User: Which sequence fits this backbone?
């Protein structure tokens, strides 16, 4: 009898503990109210959402730490967040412009991804649930209304000789006018544009089409405003659309070449990261000097509505500049490329030879 009572009491006690733990877990669960709007602040009805744990190290700006990241790298895995009661992953959808995510585990940081049902881009935000204070959070995610503006990449080619350093030293390295000594006709060079995601495990390769699936170099009728009404102002107009497709002015052939002075702009690209290679004419013996990471590929990161110039350090300039030169053995008076032979030393001057291995 006593054993039965003891067992019964034990069962009730264990059940009570389980209920108390469940209650504590529920009390310390957070909640996120998710609002979705477009770039104008207009609510966007209908979207899917997904919460993931932010497993990277928390960084406080202007506060140093003794734990160096070289011995503790950021994690690359961000698992789905789980419901603190059921253990199920936190994801779902809403037919309105708002979703309430309950029972979120406390004392963690999260990413929230949002994908509207139609007409808008993917977007997201981050949020931290803190059991000691802000466990009730409101997050507003802004999505961009489609169509997304295209991007562009500007190029500048130059004869690198004043000095040979991979950078355009202006004005000394500006291309002389046609007919003048040292002029280079850069129009014979060709652009090889690549989408480099293939190097990271995804499909990639050469890009020969623009964002509208037409060959590179295609130009479009830009005489409309955003609503399709006539607009001849180049600062405010857009590409005219017919049945959802842009109106083609001149169809390109997929190849791109700089002008005689080395300038080139590739327009109507999808935003992203591109690898660019400028290929000299066959047999011209131009050698590329400019490099970023030791190869001929120069990267270009361009966003939606990218301006025609790039600003990183100093004054605005092209997204990509590439310098070329020729061997001294190809020097011809009055022509570009190569360097004149060294003059003999003057009386009283001494000369020396330097030899070694370039590694």
Assistant:
């Amino acid at each position: 009898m006593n054993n039965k009572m003891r067992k019964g009491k034990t069962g009730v006690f264990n059940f009570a503990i389980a209920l108390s733990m469940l209650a504590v877990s529920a009390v310390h669960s957070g909640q996120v109210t998710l609002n979705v709007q477009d770039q104008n602040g207009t609510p966007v009805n209908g979207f899917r959402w997904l919460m993931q744990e932010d497993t990277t190290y928390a960084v406080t700006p202007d506060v140093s730490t003794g734990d160096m990241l070289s011995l503790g790298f950021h994690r690359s895995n961000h698992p789905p967040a789980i419901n603190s009661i059921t253990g199920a992953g936190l994801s779902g959808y809403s037919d309105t412009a708002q979703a309430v995510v309950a029972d979120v585990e406390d004392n963690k940081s999260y990413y929230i991804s949002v994908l509207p049902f139609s007409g808008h881009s993917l977007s997201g935000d981050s949020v931290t649930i803190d059991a000691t204070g802000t466990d009730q959070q409101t997050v507003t995610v802004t999505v961009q209304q489609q169509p997304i503006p295209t991007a562009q990449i500007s190029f500048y080619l130059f004869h690198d000789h004043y000095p040979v350093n991979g950078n355009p030293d202006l004005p000394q390295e500006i291309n002389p006018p046609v007919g003048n000594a040292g002029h280079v006709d850069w129009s014979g060079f060709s652009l090889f544009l690549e989408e480099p995601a293939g190097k990271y495990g995804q499909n990639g390769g050469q890009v020969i089409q623009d964002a509208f699936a037409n060959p590179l170099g295609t130009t479009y009728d830009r005489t409309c405003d955003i609503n399709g009404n006539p607009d001849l102002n180049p600062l405010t107009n857009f590409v005219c659309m017919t049945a959802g497709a842009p109106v083609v002015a001149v169809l390109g052939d997929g190849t791109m070449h700089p002008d005689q002075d080395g300038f080139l702009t590739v327009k109507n690209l999808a935003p992203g990261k591109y690898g660019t290679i400028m290929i000299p004419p066959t047999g011209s013996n131009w050698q590329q000097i400019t490099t970023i990471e030791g190869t001929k590929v120069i990267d270009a990161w361009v966003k939606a509505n990218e301006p025609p110039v790039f600003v990183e350090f100093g004054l605005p300039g092209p997204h990509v500049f590439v310098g070329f030169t020729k061997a001294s053995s190809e020097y011809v008076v009055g022509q570009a490329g190569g360097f004149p032979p060294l003059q003999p030393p003057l009386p009283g001057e001494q000369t020396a030879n330097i030899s070694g291995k370039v590694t």
In short: Residues 218-251 form one domain. The longest strand covers residues 30-38. The two ends are 89 Å apart (CA to CA).
